[in-house]
């Protein structure tokens, strides 16, 4: 008798995951994004979801490329970009997070006088693909003790969505210590301000990809944002990055 196939990373029903995203207090998220350029999100993935995604890391067939951060002086650690088709968990997260974040993105775009974004991820990816950006960008990032990620921005072409999300898959204080998520904002004619954010397993942070508007006496001005990860003091840390624009 034929053995049934092993369950895929699709194990959690997509509707359940989308419902968790829908239950987020998006008005609070919106206010935090306006004030700080980032907002914590409650746990979106269960412990089993996190394990299922982390276990994919050893299967190179699921990824289109691997980057050694130290080789490129990006930090110490590595990350892998998922190949198409994305795992169901990743695809569901990407598609369900996009619409509420597109509302924020469009409000920011109007404040800064830039182009707005369509309401659905599929429509936005059509714009990316027409611009030659066809490679998926969601990724898994892996760090061991001593690893870190330098401050940077994830821009892969002319088309870029102004918000992205990171979900930590490992258990803070159990699997690793250190490794806070870092954000630095550079305000015009002012010194930089930094944030160090501890993220629990399955929880997330949404943050500005490149810049956010801030209210000034003469209207909105741009605050430049960069992000990274502080040094892992012990253990290993894995996270999922959800970037909405595709890459060239």
What is this structure's SSE topology?
Layout: H1 14-22, H2 26-36, E1 38-41, H3 47-55, E2 63-68, E3 75-76, E4 78-82, H4 88-112, H5 121-130, E5 139-144, E6 148-152, E7 163-168, E8 176-178, E9 181-186, E10 193-197, E11 204-208, E12 211-216, E13 219-229, E14 232-242
Antiparallel strand pairs: 1-11, 2-4, 3-6, 4-5, 5-14, 6-13, 7-11, 7-14, 8-14, 9-10, 9-13, 12-13
Helix pairs in contact: 1-4
- The CATH top-level class label: Mainly Beta
Q: Into which percent range does the helicity of residues fall?
A: 25-40%
The CATH topology:
Jelly Rolls
**How is the biggest beta sheet arranged?**
8 strands, antiparallel
Q: What radius of gyration results from the CA coordinates?
A: 18 Å
Structural class: alpha+beta
What is the CA-CA span between the terminal residues?
A: 46 Å
Task: Using the alpha-carbon principal axes, give the shape.
Answer: globular
What's the tally of helices?
5
**Number of domain units:** 1
CATH arch. level architecture: Sandwich
Look at the structure and give the mean pLDDT. 94
Could you tell me the strand content as a percent range?
25-35%
What is the number of beta strands? Answer: 14
């Amino acid at each position: 008798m034929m053995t049934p196939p092993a369950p895929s990373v699709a194990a959690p029903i997509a509707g359940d995951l989308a419902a968790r995203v829908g239950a987020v207090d998006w008005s609070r998220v919106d206010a935090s994004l306006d004030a700080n350029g980032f907002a914590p999100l409650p746990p979106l993935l269960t412990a089993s979801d996190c394990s299922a995604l982390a276990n994919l890391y050893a299967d190179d067939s699921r990824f289109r490329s691997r980057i050694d951060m130290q080789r490129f002086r990006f930090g110490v650690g590595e990350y892998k970009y998922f190949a198409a088709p994305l795992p169901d968990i990743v695809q569901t997260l990407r598609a369900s997070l996009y619409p509420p974040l597109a509302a924020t993105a469009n409000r920011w775009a109007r404040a800064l006088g830039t182009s707005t974004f369509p309401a659905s991820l599929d429509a936005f990816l059509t714009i990316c693909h027409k611009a030659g950006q066809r490679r998926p960008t969601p990724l898994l990032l892996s760090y061991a003790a001593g690893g870190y990620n330098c401050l940077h921005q994830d821009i892969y072409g002319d088309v870029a969505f102004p918000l992205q999300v990171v979900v930590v898959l490992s258990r803070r204080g159990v699997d690793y210590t250190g490794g806070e998520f870092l954000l630095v904002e550079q305000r015009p004619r002012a010194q930089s301000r930094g944030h160090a954010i501890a993220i629990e397993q399955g929880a997330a942070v949404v943050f500005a990809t490149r810049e956010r508007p801030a209210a000034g006496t003469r209207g909105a001005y741009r605050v430049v944002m960069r992000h990274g990860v502080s040094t892992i003091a012990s253990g290993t840390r894995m996270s999922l990055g959800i970037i909405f624009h595709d890459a060239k």
